[in-house]
Amino acid sequence: MDIFFKTKKLQKICSTKRAAVKELGPKGGKKLMQRLSELSAAITLSDISYLPPPRLHELSGNRKGQFSVDLDHPYRLLFIPANESIPMRDDGGMNKEKIDQIEISEIEDTH
């Protein structure tokens, strides 16, 4: 899967374990690197499990259109599809089987 970043700062945090650990601590930095590795190895979002440990899920409310995966509690890695046109299902949700590009938008405590 192709991964893009919303900001250069976010790209820097996600580029090296050292920067990730500096931002999120040892456990959080390690988990961020693991999640990015899983996302880059996947062909589409449907390859990422919705069950723990990554717990990929589509968000709702004011975060509609975004997905998240768990990092070190309470943090989550938030991203949006970066496909030219967002593939949708008949029920209105996004079609994870056709999403093969994402843009990392933030690392956030969404609780």
UniProtKB/TrEMBL annotation:
<feature type="region of interest" description="Disordered">
    <location>
        <begin position="89"/>
        <end position="111"/>
    </location>
</feature>
<feature type="compositionally biased region" description="Basic and acidic residues">
    <location>
        <begin position="89"/>
        <end position="101"/>
    </location>
</feature>
<dbReference type="Pfam" id="PF05015">
    <property type="entry name" value="HigB-like_toxin"/>
</dbReference>
<dbReference type="InterPro" id="IPR007711">
    <property type="entry name" value="HigB-1"/>
</dbReference>
<dbReference type="InterPro" id="IPR035093">
    <property type="entry name" value="RelE/ParE_toxin_dom_sf"/>
</dbReference>
<protein>
    <submittedName>
        <fullName>HigA</fullName>
    </submittedName>
</protein>
